[in-house]
From TrEMBL:
Gene3D superfamilies for the chain: Protein of unknown function DUF881
Descriptive protein name: DUF881 domain-containing protein
InterPro entries: DUF881 (IPR010273)
Coiled coil regions, renumbered to chain: 42-76
Family stated for the protein in its record: Belongs to the UPF0749 family.
Top-level taxonomy: Bacteria, Bacillati, Bacillota, Clostridia, Eubacteriales
Length: 246
């Protein structure tokens, strides 16, 4: 009897241990990335993201409508008053210089693509993304050549533009971008093209040193979108305000 009682105890312990292991496995599976709880959270985040994007688009459209109304009022007043007409004209120049207006004109279009990948293990590697400073060099050369407006993948380059690596993307104005890169520059097409295609220049460096596929085209007309972000100055203030405060 003692022999059987010991066996019964062992069986009960085995069942108890098995039950505990089963509960732990279920809890672990529920907390896994593929479990129901995380999946529900991801879907919730996706819904929230979509809602925020929709709100952003609605606000953006409202802003465009208000700007149209303001431009209409400015044009109407400008036709009645020469002084107001001069102010409106100056305001347009400042807006264009700041990059907050869509602009169009002649210039060049530079297309930058990664080298053709022959090794399957390098398919996820982007040469231009990991050497994004080449984009900055190209922008600087275009500015030196007199470019009046520049964009990269439809992101307007302004004084506060930041270009940085973030994860698997290059962020421009806080917006993730990926190759191929299309760089537009408005200015004298011949001057811009000559400046970047000079021997040992930025385009030749991209091709010869990094094996990038780069092409440049002179265009009679390009359209470069406005900067859609918010420009804020935390430290810089007009000199007149500082003197008044003192």
């Amino acid at each position: 009897m003692k022999k059987y009682s010991g066996l019964i105890v062992v069986c009960i312990l085995a069942l108890f241990i098995g039950l505990i292991l089963s509960i732990q496995l279920r809890m672990t599976a529920g907390s896994d990335q593929g479990g129901l709880v995380p999946l529900a959270k991801v879907r919730g985040y996706e819904a929230e993201l979509k809602m925020v994007k929709d709100e952003k688009e609605a606000i953006k459209q409202e802003l465009l409508d208000l700007e149209d109304r303001l431009n209409s009022i400015e044009s109407e007043k400008a036709t009645d008053d020469a002084f107001v007409d001069g102010l409106v004209s100056d305001l347009e120049k400042y807006k264009t210089s700041a990059g907050v207006l869509d602009v169009q004109g002649p210039g060049v279009l530079v297309t930058i693509k990664d080298p053709v990948v022959k090794d399957e293990y390098e398919q996820d590697f982007s040469v231009i993304m990991y050497n994004y400073e080449l984009l900055l060099s190209l922008v600087n050369k275009l500015k030196e050549a007199g470019a009046e407006a520049i964009s990269i993948n439809e992101q307007r380059i302004v004084a506060t533009t930041e270009v940085s690596m973030a994860g698997n993307n290059v962020n421009i104005n806080g917006t993730p971008t990926a190759p191929p890169y299309y760089v537009k520059a408005i200015g004298n097409p011949d001057t811009l093209d000559a400046a970047i295609n000079i021997r040992s220049g930025i385009i030749e460096t991209m091709k010869m040193k990094y094996n990038l596929i780069v092409s440049t085209e002179k265009k009679n007309e390009l359209t470069i979108p406005r900067y859609t972000g918010t420009i804020k100055f935390k430290y810089a203030k007009p000199v007149g305000n500082q003197e008044d405060e003192q």
